[in-house]
UniProtKB/TrEMBL annotation, chain A:
InterPro entries associated with the record: ABC_transp_permease, LivHM_N, LivM-like
Record protein name field: High-affinity branched-chain amino acid ABC transporter permease LivM
Alphabetic keyword roster: Cell membrane, Membrane, Transmembrane, Transmembrane helix
Presence of keyword Zinc: no
CDD domains: TM_PBP1_LivM_like
Recorded topology in the membrane: Multi-pass membrane protein
Keyword hit for Chloroplast: no
Gene this chain is encoded by: livM
NCBIfam families named among the record's database cross-references: PRK11301.1
Major localization class: membrane
Subcellular location: Cell membrane
Annotated transmembrane regions: 20-39, 60-81, 101-122, 129-153, 165-196, 271-290, 323-346, 358-383, 395-412
Annotated Pfam families: BPD_transp_2, DUF3382
From TrEMBL, chain B:
Protein name: ABC transporter ATP-binding protein
Entry's family note: Belongs to the ABC transporter superfamily.
Source taxon at top rank: Bacteria
Keyword ATP-binding in record: yes
SMART domains on file: AAA
Residue ranges constituting the ABC transporter domain according to the UniProt record: 7-264
Organism the protein comes from: Bradyrhizobium jicamae
Function: Involved in beta-(1-->2)glucan export. Transmembrane domains (TMD) form a pore in the inner membrane and the ATP-binding domain (NBD) is responsible for energy generation.
From TrEMBL, chain C:
Name used for this protein in its record: Branched-chain amino acid ABC transporter permease LivH
Coiled-coil zones: none
Main location group: membrane
Compartments where located: Cell membrane
Membrane topology according to the record: Multi-pass membrane protein
Keywords from the UniProt entry: Amino-acid transport, Cell inner membrane, Cell membrane, Membrane, Transmembrane, Transmembrane helix, Transport
Length: 441, 277, 305
């Protein structure tokens, strides 16, 4: 962890090697104090129940050294690239190339996604990962309606994911309802809860809204954990039926799909099916969202994000507008939850913690609020990047946290930092994110 | 019925804690006329506007809107969005409130929200792309185009509202208010920050709105050239009460008004005024 | 009645700890307008540093409890403050004039870093300490045999909270730094024009908030006798809830909210069910906010049209 004041870029200090060295020394000193006890000393509960400790001065020295070196490197890089502002002046050819890429990236990604099961048919691990990424793409698109379009901060989105998952799990295990019947029910139940959450928070703004949505997410998780008779408590629900292809199961039984088609059964069939299922669900979410943006309701969401007072002066019912945003976002979350339950076959409250909400929110914000493509890219980067650290499970959250901090500092407005107009007369020109508001709710 | 004033404000009272911002204010705004509400800073003009347009609930008094079709609507009983939706009262703001991240055209589309909401069958028809919705959308775009042309912003239709020049933003806000097709248009200092040329164009725009749409206009203004040139009736406020009312000429020569503006006693004000003339 | 009195004592003690953490949230919110999501984890770090300092002191053969406590307090406050300062410098300052959600996400990332950092550096297992301060008083013994207990630790927590709050109130209302802080809260640009060093004032706000969180961490360690890497999350959310309940930005509100959450939690556990104590606390937060959208002592938001 280096300590580098951000203001240094526009002060006229002599940025010589002495300066860099001084800064690195200060950083190392700060690191030494910070880590002295936390890394230099290791505590553990001993055999007799009391605490024992031992020293790790070697590790401490290493960490301080890393900070010292890291600080020098960061400072050199900073001087190399110059002030951060310069990256706004992009040469024309680069900008043209970027707009070309931007234009073709989405179709290319879609085409690639369609062929993922073909390309990676024999790599179950990649298929699994692709399904996971798509689940988060869908969640990101769902939350995007609430946060990106309507500008309402929701820190408890995972609640709707949980409602969807438990709706399907409980309806299927208790009443034997099929996935295709439960899917819409899960969406309806989740959006019902979305409206329920929406009512009390209508008058709230900003951080009050944040804490209430966070509290709501926690309430749902706590109720699921403690209502043992209904939800199985911390043990969760197991034996959730797998989805069927319109009634035809994807297993190796006699009336399974493989037997009917006369081909040899392989467990990958189900994986491929699940992949296309979530792809279709995510694309539906995307299509509906794009469509809604061009309808009065979607424009009202965006207008709400821009200026709520002006909305009211134009006769827009802000109450119903907010509620529909919550309900729509929650519905997509519910769909994703039902999919999650059927994919896992087992769910427990552990899957629905605040970390999940934070992850989905990070995907939306990193993607560039309101941008469908950005959200998809962010989900790919986040979940994919997360997987790279599978071997270092211990350090995953550390790396994830650092990535969040660095990415936010690097691109506070997300990867895709502009907004596409929903209607135009002559030309459709992207609007710079500097103009786009992010709502106060 | 159509001779009745469009807006009748009776004994309007607005208190904030112990402060009386508007005290027993009564005035009428005539149909298809331009009424100006003037007064020194802090006189309570914007508070009156906020009461009329539903952002504040008056502490007392009545605000009646008499529609062309004979309906009478008690504005003090409606709140926020219903004023615009049900009573067809549109307003602009002293410190322009556009949707800066949306294009000029989009701003005008948002203004037609309620009409478009009905046309889109509460989103259902719109989602499936029904022909009735498509034609309604085309009509909405046409209306927006008409207004963009009238305020001279047709070539800026696809630019973000936040990127427009100040004077353009003022006119766009008026166009947006007009897209709600109001009976009464309330403008809060529409000429603030405009140069002489822009303010002249604004006068023409307001006169043409009154003439062509038949919209009644109520405006707060500091720019006396606007007030004197276009208003049919002027109401003067100071310290929350009405101190004078009448034609622009009558008000201009009223010693009480001059005193209020100059903060001097009446004799002195008259002397100043005569010198100025 | 005795049972009630006992719960009242327990609730007040718990509420004091929440209140101390809540002040950190509310201060930072007041001055930079962001939720410092990592604050709960600063509290956790404070607890860990106190624990380690305590272990070292004991292993050096120090036995005088007041001396140990004083050293633990000073070391923990000092190092934890430095954590607060560093985090502001790295994760928040570059985003100060950025979009509202960016610092918040950065703070959530910081929170993950701190949690994982202590998990990796100190292990995932719960760290118990033997009771450091034993004994107490029996205030009243009822006919049924139920005795109202007031332990020395509880007295210490409440007394320490009062002392720290008194110091803190003096700092905010009587010193140059406090005046600068209040000025920055009102208008940073104007404060800077009038010669207030805004960067330094904001840094100090984080430092003071972290120091208060460290005190809370020590109290927690003394009272519950355990620390673990995940304790910052729940305590942080509760304290944040307390800050919002009291009206975020209001310092007395934070303390009041803390006490309210402590009492709600304790009484709900005592009379209804332990499992749903957090649900009760969160539900009451939601109910209060429906009727008072800016909390108990928050300034009502005047809508400027």
């Amino acid at each position: 962890m280096s300590v580098t004041p951000a203001t240094s870029s526009h002060t006229s200090q002599p940025l010589g090697s002495a300066f860099i060295l001084k800064k690195a020394l200060i950083s190392a000193l700060v690191a030494l104090v910070l880590f002295s006890l936390m890394i230099g000393i290791r505590t553990e509960a001993g055999n007799q129940g009391g605490l024992i400790y031992w020293t790790r001065f070697g590790d401490l020295a290493t960490m301080v050294g890393v900070v010292f070196g890291g600080s020098i490197i960061v400072e050199l890089l900073r001087q190399w690239f110059g002030p951060v502002e310069t990256d706004k002046v992009v040469p024309k050819p680069v900008r043209a190339a970027m707009s070309f890429v931007g234009h073709w990236l989405a179709p290319a990604l879609l085409a690639f996604a369609l062929f993922v099961p073909v390309i990676f048919y024999h790599q179950r691990y990649i298929l699994d990962l692709a399904i996971l990424v798509l689940t988060y793409v869908m969640l990101g698109w769902g939350l995007n309606v609430v946060v990106g379009l309507a500008g309402l901060l929701d820190l408890g989105y995972v609640a709707f994911y949980a409602v969807g998952a438990y709706s399907y799990a409980l309806l299927a295990t208790n009443f034997g309802l099929s996935f295709w019947v439960c899917l819409p029910l899960a969406g309806i139940l989740a959006s019902f809860w979305g409206v329920l959450l929406g009512f009390p928070v209508l008058r709230l703004r900003g951080d009050y809204l944040a804490i209430v949505t966070l509290a709501f997410g926690e309430i749902i998780r706590l109720v699921i954990t403690n209502w043992q008779s209904l939800t199985g408590g911390p043990n969760g629900v197991s034996g959730i039926p797998r989805p069927t292809l319109f009634g035809i199961p994807l297993d190796n039984s006699d009336d399974g799909l493989a037997a009917k088609l006369g081909i040899e059964f392989s467990p990958t069939h189900r994986l491929v099916f699940l992949f296309y299922l979530i792809l279709a669900m995510a694309l539906l979410t995307n299509w509906v969202t794009i469509r809604l943006r061009r309808l009065p309701i979607g424009r009202a969401w965006e207008a709400l994000r821009e200026d709520e007072v002006a909305c009211r002066a134009l006769g827009i019912n802000t109450t119903t507008t907010k509620l529909t945003a919550f309900a729509t976002g929650a519905m997509f979350g519910g769909f994703a939850g039902a999919f999650f339950a059927t994919r896992q076959g087992f769910i427990s409250p552990e899957s629905f913690t605040f970390q999940e909400s934070a992850l989905v929110l990070a995907i939306v914000v990193l993607g560039g609020m309101g941008s469908q493509l950005g959200v998809a890219l962010a989900a790919l980067a986040m979940i994919g990047g997360f997987e790279l650290f599978r071997g270092f499970d211990q350090y995953r959250m550390l790396v994830f946290g650092m990535a969040m901090v660095i990415l936010m500092i690097w691109r506070p407005r997300g990867l895709v930092g502009h907004r596409a107009p929903t209607v135009y007369l002559e030309r459709s020109e992207a609007i710079s994110s500097d103009l786009v508001k992010e709502g106060h709710g | 019925m159509s001779d009745a004033p469009i807006l009748t404000v009776e004994h309007l009272m607005m208190r904030f804690g112990g402060i009386v911002a508007v005290n027993d204010l009564s005035f009428n705004a005539d149909r298809r006329k331009i009424t100006a509400l003037i007064g020194p800073n802090g006189a309570g003009k914007t508070t009156v506007f906020n009461c009329i347009t539903g952002f504040y609930r008056p502490s007392g008094g009545a605000i009646r809107l008499n529609h062309d079709d004979g309906r009478t609507i008690h504005l003090e009983r409606l709140n926020d969005f219903r004023i615009s939706k049900q009573a067809s009262v549109a307003r602009t703001f002293q410190n322009i409130r556009l949707f800066p991240g949306m294009t000029a055209l989009e701003n005008l589309m948002v203004a037609q929200h309620n009409a478009l909401m009905r046309a889109s069958g509460l989103t259902v028809l719109g989602l499936i792309g029904a022909p009735s919705w498509r034609s309604a959308e085309r009509a909405a775009i046409e209306l927006a185009r008409t207004w963009l042309a009238r305020v001279g912003l047709l070539d800026r239709a696809d630019d973000a509202a936040g990127n427009l020049a100040y004077g353009d933003q003022r006119r766009l806000e008026i166009a947006r208010a007009m897209c709600t097709e109001p009976t009464l248009l309330c403008l809060d200092e529409p000429a603030a920050g405009l140069n002489a040329r822009e303010s002249g164009a604004l006068n023409e725009l307001l006169l043409s709105i009154r003439a062509e749409q038949g919209t009644s206009i109520l405006l707060i203004e500091h720019d006396m050239s606007v007030v004197m040139e276009i208003s049919d009736h002027v109401v003067v406020m100071d310290y929350g009460v009405k101190i004078a009312e009448g034609t622009p000429q009558a008000v201009r020569d009223d010693p009480k008004v001059i005193a209020a503006y100059l903060g001097a006693d009446e004799d002195e004000a008259i002397a100043v005024m005569e010198k100025a003339n | 009645m005795d049972y009630f009195a006992q719960q009242l004592i327990n609730g007040l003690v718990l509420g004091s700890i929440y209140g101390l953490i809540a002040i950190g949230y509310t201060m930072v919110y007041g001055i930079v307008g962001m939720i410092n999501f990592a604050h709960g984890d600063i509290f956790m770090i404070g607890g860990f540093i106190a624990l380690i300092t305590f272990l070292i002191l004991v292993s050096f053969g120090l036995t005088a409890i007041p001396v140990i406590l004083l050293i633990v307090l000073l070391v923990s406050m000092a190092i934890t403050s430095l954590y607060g300062w560093t985090i502001e410098r790295i994760a928040y300052r570059p985003l100060r004039h950025s979009f509202r959600l960016a610092p918040m996400l950065s703070a959530i990332g910081m929170s993950f870093i701190l949690v994982n950092f202590s998990q990796v550096s100190q292990g995932a297992r719960v760290k118990p300490v033997p009771p450091i301060i034993a004994g107490g008083y029996t205030l009243h013994e009822g006919a049924s045999g139920f005795a109202v207990q007031l332990s020395n630790v509880q007295i210490l927590v409440v007394v320490a909270t009062i002392v720290v709050l008194a110091l803190f109130t003096w700092l905010v209302s009587r010193t140059r730094l406090g005046r600068d802080m209040r000025a920055c809260e009102q208008d940073q640009t104007m404060a800077a024009l009038l010669g207030v060093d805004v960067d330094r004032t904001i840094s100090m706000t984080f430092v003071i908030g972290a120091a208060l969180a460290a005190v809370a961490g020590i109290m927690y360690l003394l009272y519950y006798g355990v620390v673990d890497f995940f304790m910052g999350f729940v305590a942080g959310i509760k304290a944040f809830t307390a800050a919002v309940l009291g009206g975020i930005g209001s310092l007395p509100g934070a303390m009041l909210g803390g006490l309210a959450i402590g009492l709600i939690e304790t009484f709900w556990s005592a009379y209804f069910s332990v499992e749903y104590k957090d649900v009760a606390a969160f539900s009451i937060l939601i109910v209060v906010l429906i009727f008072m959208p800016t909390g108990l002592l928050g300034r009502p938001e005047v809508e400027k049209v």
